[in-house]
Specification:
There is one protein chain. The protein is mostly helical. 42% of the residues lie in helices and 7% in strands. A two-stranded antiparallel sheet has the order 1-2. The longest helix has 54 residues. The protein is flat and about 155 Å long. The N and C termini lie far apart (141 Å).
């Protein structure tokens, strides 16, 4: 597979180095005292038994920071601003509604004019059919009235 004249490489074999097991030292266990020694309380119950134990300090809730009072003038200004915006918005909607209604009525009038004008144009320009007036043949009327003999 490899050519005969290729140089040969030396192969190095690495052996793993065993890790020594940890040495267990037998150190004596020394109890550690807390920073402060809690006080022991004893209570005598009504039946004469004595209960002894450590007093537990209850955590104190964080004090609530009082909010500064809001001035009445600031409340009135804020409510006035909200009312002013509501009135402006209502007037804008009313103006838009009136403009839309005017445009709608204008379009209805234009539509009626186009339909009526088209009907009139059809009546005027049509050459056939009943024209709506009385047609008189003058020659016959004259002959009938004068009783010409012919």
């Amino acid at each position: 597979m490899y050519p005969e004249h290729a140089p040969q490489r030396a192969v190095e074999v690495h052996q793993p180095t065993p890790i020594p097991p940890p040495v267990a030292h037998s150190a004596p266990v020394v109890p550690v005292q807390p920073g402060t020694v809690p006080t022991v309380a004893s209570i005598v119950l009504p039946d004469g038994r004595v209960v002894t134990g450590y007093a537990i300090e209850h955590p104190q809730p964080t004090p609530v920071v009082a909010k500064p009072p809001v001035s009445r003038a600031a409340v009135n200004v804020a409510l006035g601003g909200v009312g002013f915006l509501a009135v402006c918005g209502g007037l804008l909607l009313l103006t838009s509604f009136i403009a839309a209604l005017t445009a709608f009525i204008t379009q209805l009038i234009i539509l009626a004019a186009v339909i009526f004008g088209g009907w009139i144009a059809v009546q005027v320009l049509s050459g056939s059919g009943h024209k709506g007036g009385t047609t008189v043949n003058i020659r016959r009327a004259v002959f009938k009235r004068n009783h010409f003999q012919g």
